[in-house]
Amino acid sequence: MDQSNTKHGKAYELWLNDPHIDEATKAELRAIADQPAEIEERFYKDLEFGTGGLRGIMGAGTNRMNRYTVARATQGFAQYILANRKEGENPSVVIAYDSRQNSPEFALTSALVLAANGIQAKVFPELRPTPQLSYAVRALKASGGIVITASHNPPEYNGYKVYNAEGGQLVPHEAEQVIEQIRGIASFEQVRMAAREEAEAQGLLQWLGEAEDLSYITTVAAQSRNRSRIEGAGGLGESFAIVYTPLHGSGNMPVRRVLEEIGFRNVHVVPEQERPDGQFPTVKSPNPEEREAFAMAVRLAERIDADIIIGTDPDADRMGAVVRNNQGEYEVLTGNQSGAIMVHYLLSQMQAAGELPANGAVVKTIVTSEMGAVIAEHYGAKVLNTLTGFKYIGEKMTQFAASGEHTFLFGYEESYGYLAGEYARDKDAVIAAMLICEAAAYYKSQGKTLYDVLSELYASHGYFLEKLESRTLKGKDGLEQIQSIMSEWRSNPPAQVAGVNVKRRLDYSEGIDGLPRENVLKFIMEDGSWFCLRPSGTEPKIKLYFAVRGESYDQASAALDRLVEAVTEKL
Questions:
Q1: Nearest-5° angle of CA 558, CA 561, CA 567?
Q2: Which of 54, 75, 50, 78 is nearest to 175 (CA)?
Q3: DSSP letter at 94?
Q4: Whole-prediction pTM value?
Q5: 69 with 21: CB under 8 angstroms?
Q6: pLDDT tens digits, 396-454
Q7: Angle 252-261/210-221 helices, nearest 10 degrees?
């Protein structure tokens, strides 16, 4: 089929003939000349710049992650920064990257575009966690930040996340301004790029290092609630055995450093998964939400009789924990369970020390379990809900800091993202690893495992059970299918599910409770259970969230099974 007159065909030809595009990229494109479906997939649209930035499969094309799409996005971000610059300000942007393929190249490309626009780029020379980027933006008083990562996506993906001067990912009204700038860049001729040597000589490319690392580690360690009981001879940290896997990502050094900083001395890193590797060769997915990712860690833990297993994703903003259950088997805690435990631990310790503020607040997302909320309210804390995405939790933190209405205590989302302390505006697996290990060591000194603590919390507050299902629908057709599913559930909402009446339907695309509009549907049932449909913002998936609360584990489990079966059958 002749594609020369199609939109994607014309875009393909433009790239082949553009003098600003290198020969290797053109050779990659010539190799697919007789593959019309592949050309369409790569060029039917520009890789979408969402509120979190770019994320996509690496390769040549407008719908791919490559140095040209990265450079175009950075030119738009640079123009946004300059347009919003305060008088007398010398703008700067901090840049970090994780272990994925092409991450160093994309980071340098971003830096050189910024430098060409007169914006100082402060770049970490090796991989660093995303939360350290958030911290560094604030600590260095930068105008913004960029991190090159695709989180826990498959190896063929990479991404580009943009941060504001508060150290948070751009919220919708900020992202729209950047998107508008990017849309105005019609050709790569409009993208400015400096030479590396020139940028360094002019001080527009600055390399960060140990001083920034030490500042971050010290700040995270300062959030510890029981450091004095962990460190030193005879402290809890001497014998408490931890197995840690960075899953080939950026968490290895900072997680180990912060654990050592507060006194943990018995830390064992999974050797096969210690070194950074963007191919993630030992796992199907570098995602601590999945038990399979912990297979090697569990084997090591069984060998040394570890007290806890922790794992972090490639950019170390998500943390998963594995603990022994009552049968002595290692069991992966859900994000909701880990969050509830940390809320209980932090707030109980603050209360015991007389340091729990009267205006304290815990912030969570609309798809996160209500268990943590019930626990927080038990300690007198206010609970606020945001849309999915830690940028909204970070936005609340900034509002608290400005108004003084609340003191931020803890923020979390069910997808394994947590933050305590006000030093950053993004989820941080480094502090989450520290806190979950600290809590486990503290409760071990009382003769309890974290599984025991979780059982006590269920008995006190109710048996909250949750489940996440997802359907992967790739490519242009998949996107259309996801849109069709959401449209169908909007136009034909169920009145009853699994024999229980639907009490309320929440359509967040209409703007609810003062939240930004987002393509999310949530159904609240008469018995207090709920389910939610949400297209993923970072993967070609539609996600289904389910939650119930029962008076016993068996009752809640049966109710959850009925709800999941009824919804997925209709889907």
A1: 140
A2: 50
A3: E
A4: 0.94
A5: no
A6: 999 999 999 999 999 999 999 999 999 999 999 999 999 999 999 999 999 999 999 99
A7: 50
Q: Of 167, 261, 260, 249, which Cα lies nearest the Cα of 219? A: 261
For 215-225, b/e burial (b = at least 16 CB within 10 A) is: bbbebbbebbb
| pLDDT(117) > 90 | yes
Tokens of 285: 């997915």
Other CB atoms within a 10 A radius of the CB of residue 424 amount to: 30
With residue 442 as reference, give the H or E element that holds it: helix 429-444
Number of H helices, E strands in the chain: 20, 21
Amino acid, res. 399: Q
Q: What is the pLDDT at residue 81?
A: 98
Let me know: does 476 contact 390? Beta carbons within 8 Å: no
Radius of gyration of the chain, Cα coordinates, nearest whole angstrom: 24
**Angle at CA of residue 562, ends 561 and 568, nearest 5°:** 85
Which DSSP letter does residue 85 get? Answer: P
Q: Which of 151, 338, 369, 415 is catalytic?
A: 151
Contact criterion met (CB below 8 Å) for 545 and 415: no
pLDDT of residue 51: 66
* Helix or strand (DSSP H, E) at 548: strand 541-550
Q: What is the number of residues in the chain?
A: 571
**What's 187's DSSP letter?**
S
Rounded CA separation 334/412 (Å)? 12
Task: For Cα atoms 420, 421, 426, give the angle at the middle one, nearest 5 degrees.
Answer: 70
Whether 151 is a known active-site residue: answer yes
Amino acid type, 558: A
Q: How far is 337 from 372, CA to CA, in rounded Å?
A: 8
pLDDT digits (tens, 9 = 90+) for 474-525: 877 888 899 999 999 999 999 999 999 999 999 999 988 888 899 999 999 9
